[in-house]
Specification:
By secondary structure, this protein is an alpha/beta fold. The chain has helices spanning about 20-30, 45-55, 65-70, 85-95, 125, 155-170, and strands spanning about 15, 35, 55-60, 75-80, 115-120, 140, 145-150. It folds into two domains: about 15-100, Rossmann fold (3-Layer(aba) Sandwich), CATH 3.40.50; about 105-170, no CATH class. The chain contains six helices and seven strands; from the N terminus they run E-H-E-H-E-H-E-H-E-H-E-E-H.
């Protein structure tokens, strides 16, 4: 529950609690910097501290953590939706995110590190395989080495984001 619309100066940065792992992955797909914590209650103080120090929006489905964050002056969103569509829609409505896929594939969905666009031939995992991409572009995670491309799965990603935007009334 966020009362006012977030004004977008630069893309928002997030920190998500363990109840929002799927949402964290989707924010990364959209190119947003989203740190994810999965250590339960022990992580609450660390999550709040990180949000405050780095100017991140805390994402939680824990009403106690949400209220505690607001009292401490941490910008937070209480993610109420059960589905990923509903949670994404909520963040769209508040102005925290948009569905501009031009920012796509900037972040690793696994580790949140930045991706680097590279030539297909330079990725040994793909060199001997026929990987169909929508635009023949390949990205590699600078930290964990995971490889990304806009294959047929991108249609499903686009569909999910369109459904979320519809739910948000956009």
């Amino acid at each position: 529950m966020v009362d006012a619309k977030h004004t977008m100066r630069e893309p928002a940065k997030f920190v998500a609690d363990e109840m929002n792992g799927d949402l964290a992955r989707w924010l990364r797909i959209l190119g947003y910097d989203c740190v994810y914590f999965s250590n339960g209650d022990e992580a609450d103080e660390r999550i709040m501290e990180l949000a405050m120090k780095q100017g991140r929006i805390l994402l939680t489905s824990d009403s106690t953590l949400y209220k505690k964050s607001l009292r401490a002056g941490v910008e937070a969103a209480f993610t109420r939706g059960v589905t990923r569509h509903a949670r994404l829609a909520q963040l769209m409505k508040t102005g925290y995110i948009d569905t501009d896929l031009k920012r796509r594939l900037r972040r690793c969905t696994t580790c949140n590190a930045l991706l680097t666009e590279t030539e297909r031939e330079s990725v040994s995992a793909l060199a001997d395989q026929r990987v169909e991409t929508a635009d023949d572009r390949i990205w590699v995670c600078n930290q964990c080495g995971k490889v990304y491309w806009t294959g047929s799965h991108w249609k499903g990603i686009t569909r999910t984001l369109q459904q979320a935007a519809q739910l948000a009334g956009l």
